[in-house]
Design brief:
Elements (H helix, E strand, L loop, with lengths): L2 E10 L3 E4 L10 H9 L3 E4 L6 H16 L8 E5 L10 H9 L5 E5 L5 H14 L5 E8 L19 E10 L4 E9 L7 E2 L11 H5 L6 E2 L1 H23 L8 E3 L5 H11 L10 H4 L6 H11 L8 E8 L3 E8 L1
Parallel strand pairs: 4-5, 4-6, 11-12
Antiparallel strand pairs: 1-7, 2-3, 6-7, 8-13, 9-10, 12-13
Helix pairs in contact: 2-3, 6-7
Amino acid sequence: MNYSHVLGTGGALPDRVVTNDHFSYLVENADEWIQSRTGICERRFASEQESSSDLATIAARRALESAGLDPLELDGIIVGTSTPDMCLPATACMVQKNIGAKNAVAFDMNAVCSSFVFAVETADSYIKAGKFGKVLVIGADTYSKILDFDDKNTSPLFGDGASALILGAGSERKGIISSLIRSDGNGWELIQVPSSGSRKPVTAETIANREHTFKMEGKKVFIFATDVIPKIIEEVTSRAGVTPDQLDHIIPHQANVRIIDFISKKTGIAKERFLLNLDRCGNTAAASVGLALDENMRNGVIKAGESVLIMGFGGGLSWGGMLLQF
């Protein structure tokens, strides 16, 4: 049986740091207001010239360097994103050109903030089926391009970034041990950009109504997240034949520290076991889980022999997770 081993990781953040004080035009005492509600202190915004593919390319190159691989060795490139450079072609094809991975099949996936986890699951399936040997998975988003900066409830939440993970086939039982992905279309309206496609094309009228920007029903999404996260932890560990208390680390989607606090209390899992970067990065959507993974691989927090559960949740509604054995 093939297992998907982690060969390398990479990450990329824009240079521009945006502190909470940037949003003082929306609310008094912006820093205290935002921190107390989200745990976010600052985030990074892409420049006008930077796109999702630019950040994805940097993350990809760093992952290749980490893995010691030549781009020509890649069989596949999957980019998880809900802010592609264009509605067509696939952002993955732009990354493929940029890194010179001419032998790889390249395509995008969109499960909103769950995109990275869904893309990793897809890559794992290709590897286990014996179709691909090495796959580059990228989560990349630039939500600063689609935010409504007059909305105090959503615009301070997000940051831009990209993360990359290279998986390779191996016979040893490590890497991805168990996984699941789920979706519930009944909740699709909770997270959306109303005017962004064929359902309601962008027009002068939709722009005037700000329908081309990100919308979210935050309270309902909080309820959804706090319901599914414990289920992800329980089911993924059960499939792996372990219990949650045997996990060394948990990397959740970096959305809101209140969600993590709630989950810690609900499950009895100490908050210290959750690896977070949202205080410095905000919610980087598809990039968030991979960015935290890369950071903690590089700084030595995640060590050989340890088990890490990663998970995502987002629009669709969508959610999923997987157990990685290092």
